[in-house]
Design brief:
alpha/beta, 4-stranded parallel beta sheet, globular
């Protein structure tokens, strides 16, 4: 395809700001790898399409601004093996400004959250497929490490959107520990691995809103990936849960 130019009526206006904001953190499923497949089978980058994913569909349903961090092969404590270098995990990747270059330390350009520019009403995390798909024994120690890092990572994301307090100190640290304890009660590895399981906060909401996590039950076994139909099914399952948790009505 060759683009030779654009024609307009002389006026290009910014769309109005979305009243709702959702953040999605995930792996190739959330990125849309294989979403254009006619049927679940071995995909390629040519069938990658985020516009067909369950995440994008939910944002469309709610008229929400969608902020997505998704990497193929990414995991919480174990990512899909990269023969060239040790694979990075999502807790390491999350603050990268550019996906093409992992940047940390002095001279790097880590992404710094600007809560005045974007603060999600809720975020959904779909990680774990690559942690448990392959490589190494998934014993009790591995499962515990996965759960510990999952809780730690989700809490760090929550805290990154918190407005700094003028009286930070021991009280802030206690608040963080209490939040971690609440989150740990909700992170159950067997639920993360088995089926769509978006969980509501039973006590007070963690700032900045509802913290949700799930794993699409419609995704076929490896090496297959959910296609458009499977993504639509996942979005359909998640929609009423989000309506209940967030108290939102859909745009449809």
């Amino acid at each position: 395809m060759t683009v030779v130019g654009f024609a307009t009526d002389g006026f290009l206006a910014r769309p109005p700001p979305a009243p709702r904001k959702l953040e999605f953190i995930g792996d190739s499923i959330t990125a849309g790898y294989g979403a254009e497949l006619a049927a679940p089978c071995q995909p390629s980058v040519l069938t990658n399409n985020h516009a067909l994913t369950w995440a994008h569909l939910l944002c469309q349903d709610f008229g929400a601004e969608c902020f997505v961090e998704a990497y193929s092969g990414i995991g919480v404590v174990f990512s899909y093996p990269d023969p060239a270098s040790p694979p990075l995990t999502m807790p390491e990747r999350y603050h990268d400004t550019l996906a093409s270059n992992h940047q940390k330390g002095e001279g790097g350009h880590p992404w710094v959250v600007d809560v005045d520019a974007f603060r999600p009403d809720g975020f959904l995390v779909n990680l774990g497929t690559n942690d448990f798909c392959c490589g190494g024994a998934k014993n009790a120690s591995f499962v515990q490490a996965y759960e510990d890092m999952y809780v730690k990572f989700v809490m760090e994301v929550v805290q990154s959107y918190a407005v700094p307090s003028a009286t930070e100190g021991n009280g802030k640290e206690e608040e963080k520990k209490e939040g971690e304890a609440r989150m740990r009660r909700r992170v159950q590895v067997k639920e993360v691995m088995a089926g769509l399981s978006v969980v509501r906060e039973e006590d007070e909401m963690l700032p900045p809103g509802a913290a949700l996590r799930g794993s699409p039950s419609s995704s076929p076994p490896a090496p297959s990936y959910p296609n458009e139909a499977a993504n639509q099914q996942v979005a359909k399952q998640a929609l009423p849960v989000l309506v209940k948790v967030m108290g939102w009505e859909t745009d449809k």
